[in-house]
Amino acid sequence: MPLCFAPADAQALPLTLLEKEALGAWLEGPGAAHRAWVEAAGFRAGLGEVLPLPGEGGLAGALGGYGDAAARARERFPLAAVAQALPPGDWRIAEGLPEDAAEREALGWLLSGYAFSRYRKASERPERRLVAPPGVDPDRVEMLAEAEALTRDLVNTPAADLGPGALEAAAAALAVRFGASIEVTRGEDLLAENLPLVHAVGRAAAEAPRLIDIRHGDVGPRLTLVGKGVCFDTGGLDLKPAQAMGLMKKDMGGAANVLGLAQIIMAEDWPVRLRVLIPAVENAVSAGAFRPGDILASRKGLTVEVNNTDAEGRLVLADALALACEEGPEMLVSMATLTGAARVAVGPDIAPFFTDDGALAQALSEAGGRWADPVWRLPFHAPYEAMIEPGIADLDNAPQGGFAGAITAALFLRRFAEGAGAYAHFDIYSWQPQAAPGRAKGGLMQGVRALRGALPGSLGL
After folding, report:
1. 114/192 same-domain check
2. Closest Cα partner for 314 from 399, 213, 203, 192?
3. pLDDT score at 402
4. How many domains does the chain have?
5. Residues 346, 277 share a domain
6. Residue 22 belongs to domain with CATH number
């Protein structure tokens, strides 16, 4: 299905959404004419149930089960469960859609049409288009769906076709589309430009490492987004086992998400000086690979002892964060598929984030709830600072013991984020393990809608 609404004047069939507890009253009132049909079909208004309604000339409409509050709480996009079960055609919501959920549910409907078909012939999927419900801004919701499709496509593309060069090309295409500038520092030039950690992590790969730098807007507060662009992560010389390497095409999920957020910001023309920094590398194995025990210099001047080459994401982010802070942005956000510890803590559905700004944290939580983008604040727990200080160097990239892995990684990054007015770090998964309504199995946008809702207020826009 296309990620767009049906025209407002489309000859759309009516869809009546019914909560379980409202079914009886509907059958006594407006639905009395269909009572026998509904009872014979065994329709109970369970979430995702669909019952086509017959008319004189064929299909007259449909009932969609909206379940009960408990069932809706288990789904991010309850309406999408109905959408995917409807007969093909154009539909409009006749009744039953809560006004305060209309935009979120309309977005879920559009996202239920997403499919990644780059590597196979696109099947003839039946279209189920929705007329934008009253009060819903169709342009805004379509824009959000398009940005998520960009993120999902990037994450779903395997590393053979999305190495550092292809990620650069995707960033350049986005920049050109919105009239943004882009500069890229590659290979040995990273050393000349004092980006040694980005160079160290990516130097063993067939494709040169690079730092992608996009700018858009010349007025307003400075907003800088930093995304981890590790296009494939073998683990380096601390080689991952095969099972752990299977999903490493998604290790550039942080970059994909900040590009999706940047697309939203530029499409909505926020009055900000936007900057997007993406260290794009592949963590590979060759004679030039960095080694366990190496001590690396960073742009900030802090030295880092490498106790695990598989903790490379924080290294490339460190240089990018230090670069970002040199111009003192009012807001700095990093996004990365950084630690397995974050997944153990909150699972794949929730995007944990870290910030010292209480107002920003509250705004993120509220916006995530409004836009079906669950986030959860984890602490920058100061007593754990000692865990990232090895003694032989300023910092340790992989503290021993395994405790508090997401927190120690965030504390490591915060050392390089000094100088920003506010800083938030998201440790995302960017992957949907099993298909769910509105969320196809595969790449996923996480934390972006929460940021879109929270950042304008935090920046005083």
Report:
1. no
2. 399
3. 82
4. 2
5. yes
6. 3.40.220.10
Q: What is the dihedral of CA 255, 338, 107, 22, to 10 degrees?
A: 180
Instruction: Map tokens 């779903």 to a residue.
Output: 156
The phi, psi pair for 459, rounded to 5°, reads: -95, 0
Sign, CA dihedral 126-131-135-136, equals: positive
pLDDT for 2 beyond 80: no
pTM over 0.85: yes
Q: Which residue would you say has higher pLDDT here, 400 or 299?
A: 299
CA 263 – CA 268 distance, rounded (Å): 8
Q: Do the domain assignments include residue 5?
A: no
For residue 6, being part of any structural domain is answered with: no
Integer Cα distance of 370 and 104 in angstroms? 7
Q: What is the dihedral sign for C-alpha 337, 338, 340, 343?
A: negative
**Which positions are catalytic?**
240, 314
Reported as a single tens digit per residue, the pLDDT across 30-69 is 999 999 999 999 999 999 999 999 988 889 999 999 999 9
Statement: residue 1 has pLDDT above 50: no
357 and 334, same structural domain?
yes
Last residue of a domain, one of 119, 135, 151: 135
Answer whether residue 368 is part of any domain.
yes
Per-residue pLDDT tens digits for 106-119: 999 999 999 998 99
Residue 126 has pLDDT above 80, yes or no: no
Which residue range(s) make up the domain with 53? Answer: 13-135
Last residue of a domain, one of 105, 135, 165: 135
Q: What angle do CA 293, 298, 304 make, to 5 degrees?
A: 30
Residues 99, 154, single domain; the answer is: no
Distance from C-alpha of 197 to C-alpha of 327, rounded to nearest angstrom:
20
